[in-house]
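hey so u asked for the seq, here:
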Amino acid sequence: MLTFSITILDPAAQRVLNAFAESYGWEPGKETKEQFVKTQVIAYMKDVTTSHESRNASKTAGSQAEGKAKAEIIIT
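ran it, structure tokens below
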């Protein structure tokens, strides 16, 4: 298991929370600002992983299709 821990020193902590809250649309009352930021960071990590894996799968599928076409389609 991989665990991430992020420590933001007090002088910058509120700035970071405010930046994420405003950038990602936090609305007071639904959850705390801290909970919202944590949710957004987790979602970002999932999005990056999904995008990366999707790009790699597309590259692999494209390479396989190209190889198959070159091997099977012979024009004389």
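The mean pLDDT is 89. The CA atoms of residues 43 and 49 lie 10 Å apart.
lmk if thats what u needed
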